[in-house]
Design a protein that fits this description.
Length: 325
């Protein structure tokens, strides 16, 4: 069977790194690619950042490869995660040989709850002066992400599982989150650790080697994974998978990088590593492994883009990865 992959480049450097990832996928697999549009520029051109056709195509495809969007993240990324029925956002932050990482011992995977928390999309303007945001946390979704996180740790050989929360302040919502996650850990009879998410931000910098899998509510996962990107060499290195039961969306953790967009020098590694996660999603483990090895080889031996100290273009790096395949 030929799987159908929707390709959405989005804004800024999404336009540059996604074609690099598609080039790599074309070199190793036989997918049918269908291009669709979304993002700030689509809002500016058509009035709607996420056309109905894009949403439906993503919903009915086998998987989506997504780049980045800017101001329209809430109108694009969140509905698309819902379209692929994604409950988990997997964000590995790993240091690679040859990359000048602040903390080369970092190997942490953030398992981010992908549907709730302050990203539930319930905001109101009460008066000109007063706005509110509703933070939704359910036991069901918290159990589901914890089960996924503990299972991920077990399947991928991580001994350290940490539950991140802020239950001392958000007593009810994070109370439900941490109680559900604890219950899953206890039922499985495995060791786990708990950390207040703000303290964890500091501890990741001081002792990243102490952390393996971090199970966290939505916003905490978004923030902490960017912190960890700083430990391993920057956002150009972090891929992610929005995991659903039968569908998925794969996107670099980075945003649109307007400061370098259009220059052709964005690091495509995060997008290519996201493509490797897409291959894994279909069970093509060996092919995913060879893509990862090719990326690691290029990160180690070059060429590299300016964010990693080199002078190569996005296309140079993509070509070097494909050469190794
Ligand atoms: N590919 C990453 C991207 O588009 N980021 C925009 C953003 O702010 N996303 C919010 C999120 O990941 O929840």
């Amino acid at each position: 069977m030929t799987e159908t992959i929707v390709v959405i480049k989005g804004d800024g450097i999404g336009q540059e790194v996604v074609p690099a990832a598609v080039e790599v996928l074309e070199a190793v697999a036989d997918f049918e690619f269908v291009e669709r549009e979304a993002g700030d520029y689509v809002r500016d051109e058509q009035g709607d950042p996420l056309p109905e056709d894009t949403y439906e195509t993503v919903r009915n495809a086998d998987a989506t490869l997504f780049g980045a969007v800017g101001e329209t993240a809430a109108d694009v990324v969140l509905p698309l995660r819902e379209a692929v029925d994604s409950f988990a956002n997997v964000r590995p932050a790993r240091a690679y040989p040859g990359v000048d990482a602040l903390r080369p011992e970092t190997d942490i995977v953030f398992i981010r709850e992908n549907t709730q928390g302050v990203y539930s999309g319930i905001e109101s303007r009460i008066t000109d002066d007063v706005t509110t945001l509703t933070r939704v946390i359910t036991e069901d979704a918290s159990r589901k992400i914890a089960e996924f996180g503990f299972e991920y740790a077990d399947a991928n050989g991580y001994d350290d599982v940490t539950i991140a929360h802020k239950q001392n302040v958000m007593r009810l919502t994070d109370g439900v989150f941490v109680d559900a996650a604890r219950a899953v850990g206890d039922e499985r009879g495995v060791d786990y650790d708990e950390k207040l998410m703000d303290a964890l931000g500091m501890l990741l910098l001081l002792e990243p080697e102490e952390y393996g899998v971090v199970i966290c509510p939505n916003l905490a996962g978004d923030v902490l994974s960017d912190v960890a990107a700083g430990l391993v060499g920057g956002l150009g290195l972090l891929p992610s998978a929005n995991v659903g039961a039968d569908n998925g969306m794969f996107e670099p953790v980075h945003g649109t990088a307007p400061d370098i967009a259009g220059e052709g020098i964005a690091n495509p590694s995060a997008a290519v590593l996201s493509a490797a996660m897409l291959l894994e999603h279909f069970g093509y483990e060996e092919t995913a492994g060879s893509v990862r090895t090719a990326v690691e080889g290029v990160l180690s031996d070059g060429p590299t883009t300016p964010d990693l100290g080199g002078s190569a273009t996005t296309d140079d790096v993509a070509a070097a990865i494909v050469d190794r395949l």
